[in-house]
Amino acid sequence: MNLFVTGYKKFRRDVYPGLEAQYRALAKSQKPHTLFITCSDSRVRPADLTQTQPGELFKCRVVGNIVPAHGTAAGGVTAAIEYAVMVLRVDNVVVCGHSDCGAMRAFSHPEKLEGMKAVRAWIEHAESAIAVAKGQFGHLSGDEFLVALAKENVISQLQHLRTHPCVATGLRNGSLRVEGWYYDIGQGTIEQLDQVTGKFVELDQVDDRVVAQIS
Ligand SMILES: [Zn+2]
Q1: What is the CATH number of domain 30-214?
Q2: Separation of 196 CA from ligand 1 center, angstroms?
Q3: Alpha carbon of 61 to ligand 1 centroid (Å)
Q4: Distance of CA 77 to CAs 15, 36, 113, 179, Å?
């Protein structure tokens, strides 16, 4: 673990002093405004993308930013959703997919999942995305198809998200909103799903409450 000692020392020396008051204020409670569900990928850093501070984003990170539909898997994602929505009472849920996602790539190379039963079972929750992507974007190949699939996966996982009773209730009574994002790692850009047109639009071109809160 010596790998992390240098970073820890830097945090103690250069970072913590500047944030000490903030951390002390947050020490006993949190009131994040957003549940941020994204991939475990090491290149996706939500705090960088949104320039948010400690205490603002309640994060749930899972392979492929997959949200199992309600009743299909009572796992950590479901627990994170219920806790964020029912206890922390977040205002927003963001599902953020990204470019070059290994989970999406796995659909094109299932042979690479040999012996990985858990991964196979997990990415089955993205089967509807692959079905739609093949139907709609089957003429694309390589990275272009991968982008289309990753975006379609965001749409599918948002649909799953809405099946959770606490999310459905929040959407119905207006206390919660859900958004889908696609993050391009190389370009450093975020696109948000327009839930009316089904198209992704660069985030700074979208005028809504989520943007206002985190900008
Ligand atoms: Zn990923």
Answers
A1: 3.40.1050.10
A2: 25
A3: 10
A4: 31, 11, 22, 17
Rounded Cα distance between 106 and 140, Å, is 17
Ligand 1 centroid distance, CA of 104 (Å): 7
In 3D space, the residue among 136, 145, 75, 73 whose CA is nearest the CA of residue 104 turns out to be 145
For each of the chain's 215 residues, which pLDDT tens digit applies? 689 999 999 999 999 999 999 999 999 999 999 999 999 999 999 999 999 999 999 999 999 999 999 988 778 999 999 999 999 999 999 999 999 999 999 987 878 888 999 998 899 999 999 999 999 999 999 999 999 999 999 999 999 999 999 999 999 999 999 999 999 999 999 999 999 999 999 999 986 655 445 44
Distance, CA 22 to ligand 1 centroid (Å)?
31
Instruction: Tell me, in angstroms, the distance from the centre of ligand 1 to residue 63's CA.
Output: 6
CA 204 – ligand 1 centroid, Å: 23
Question: 65 C-alpha vs ligand 1 centroid, how far in Å?
Answer: 7
Q: Domain extents for the chain?
A: 30-214
